[in-house]
Amino acid sequence: MAELSVQEIIKPENLVYQKTKLMTDKALSYCPGCGHGTAHRITMEVIEELGKENDTIGIAPVGCSVLAYEFMNVDMQEASHGRAPAVATAIKRLWPNKVVFSYQGDGDLAAIGTAETIHACNRGENIVMIFINNGIYGMTGGQMAPTTMIGMKTSTSPFGRDVALHGHPLKITELVAQLPGTRFVTRHSVHTPAAARKTKRAIKKAFEAQIAGVQGTAFIEIVSNCNSGWKMTPIDSNNWMAENMFPFYPIGDIKVDGKLIEK
Amino acid sequence: MTEEIIIAGFGGQGVLSMGKILAYSGIMQDQEVSWMPSYGPEMRGGTANVTVIVSDERISSPTLSFFDTAVILNQQSMDKFEETVKPGGVLLYDPNGISKHPTRTDITIYKIEGARLAAEMGNTKIFNMVVLGAYLKVKPIVKLENVIKGLKKSLPERYHKLIPLNEDAITMGMKNVVKI
Amino acid sequence: MGELKLMKGNEALAEAAIRAGADGYFGYPITPQSEVIEYLMAEKPWERTGMVVLQAESEVASINMLYGGGGTGKKVMTSSSSPGISLMQEGISYLAGAEIPCVVVNVVRGGPGLGDIQPSQSDYFQSVKGGGHGDYRLPTLAPSSVQEMSDFVPVAFDLAFKYRTPVLIVSDGLIGQMMEKVELFDPIPRWTDEEIVEMHPWATNGKPKGGERRIMTSLYLDPHVLEEHNYKLQRKYAEITKNEVRYELLDAEDADYLFVAYGSSSRIAQKSVKLAREKGIKVGLLRIISLWPFASEIINEFTEKGIKGFLSVEMSAGQMVEDIKLAVNGRTKVEHFGRLGGVIHSPEEVLEALEQKLIGG
Q: ipTM of this model?
């Protein structure tokens, strides 16, 4: 087979992949190798596939994804630190026919915003909560997060997270799964194409239920890397994540259709 | 006409609701009214009081240091409010449970055996209406028909059957108030 | 004439929210204003008008619910009392920064800290000098009667949407807890979703078909861009200062002295005016209705006309008095009187203060 020229390759009929139009053309502010970009893209792909471009309101947090609204090409609100679930609650209750999701990191969702997280889930707000857990405060320069692993070094746990000093890493996802208001609680990753596809399926399932009006909160954790914060190469960070984080934050469904999955 | 009243007694004696009915009666005859209760820690020890103002004019301060009339229904309130009656004003009290009776001579003092009369009528809950009747005999600032209208307005529908009983209690109070 | 009722200030405020066509109320109980949410929950406005009422997990959540709801162009409101309003300050700053309309009601109680639950006016600084961070201002209305607790709600919503800003209503435990005659205004229908989309193109309620997405944010990382944004806010505040000063004068025409007061203190001072006039003292009352923008111009006019002095009457250690002094700028005497910590001053005390601090002083 003859090699295709560049001009040939970019012909529309030869396209094998197209960026969703619900991602803006702005260059992502994330570090190369970070999982945020993939998580953004699959979320926006789902909104596009569901035909909800004009009916979706997303809530961005404070943290690395503070600028999510620069990249996600739907109506967006930038919440104050930790309050995205409260912001989303009001929007969904005032516009029950719109599609509402929040997108938060671990510090935002599981430290400063724990109360809002738990109460939105406990009320069973009909929203999709996307939770990126990379065990660190990336934006502020690599401080300890509520989800930082025991022994893991950060700028505020320079000798490694010590339970006596810092307390335990918080499994907030298991915690919210216990609440009667959550309908779908699941944990995924985006570090391989296969993992990203699975995560996308989970996100789609969550949005479909919201659109169908099935009551209950959908909570999707994405265990992700922070190669800059962890001071590793992207590949090393993903390997480290799979080796060290997945045993503690196991991948898979925790609650489906309001029922906890027996392990 | 402006009438500034303090009604004071124990919680549960119907102090606040008596004030409320009086205020509603004022509204029924197109007057301005205010009703300012004590609330929070002031009410510890079970005392309750309310300042009611009924006036033909816009009401200024809803809280006051001195009153045209004090309606006093327990000893603590007597200790606190006897001094707050303006010279020439009225003090109306129920002697039931009062050990130190009022002594001022520059005011007019009336007595109503409200608790006893209500008990005799077979319903202690209408005590405050007996007292209201006594007050209205002394200070007919609102017409009885407007009190009944006020009652209708302030009571939920399901209690409207009790209005005749309340009316009887008011009449009982009017008949039995005694000037000291 | 509208419906006449005997209501507590807090209840009148709640009823007014329903009648003003509010879309949502989000609040957390705190004395002395819990009657607001109690009234709403009992009244079930979702059946009357479709209004949403939600008891939030905290004041922090409530104010952020206002951010969410207001950011979609809906009429949203919360109420609280001093400590709860302190908790909301971060959110209020974000609302001001993102230019989100909403109404926040403070039924003030004694402070600082947990303080007490009695009426106070010690949150003036917090209300008008920027309780949160950043260069922002909040139009602030101070009702002095149960009637105004009702009437100011639609006014506050109008201001909020006209200028795309959070608006404060600053009341206190006295106005909130007392009952007075109130004439309820006729209900204003809630905006339909279509009307909101039409009227508020800035609102994030779903990207318009074929249009650009909208963003609610107060984040501008480039300082030059943030500076521009701040200038825009300042132009808006200048406009509000020009258009929205509200005050009332009582017995002021022939006055040698003026009490300056707002809210419940203005009611007490009104009685003091009467007591003073009985003694032959010519004093009037300047009742401040909008705490911000402040009635500096009328104070200036009285100063120019040679008024002998102003007595600021506030249930605080002297907060509004600073704004009076700024307006007077040393040209005549300005004094303050007020009880602290939730103690309500008596009309007699106010008169005595006038005699001692201004007439005798």
A: 0.95
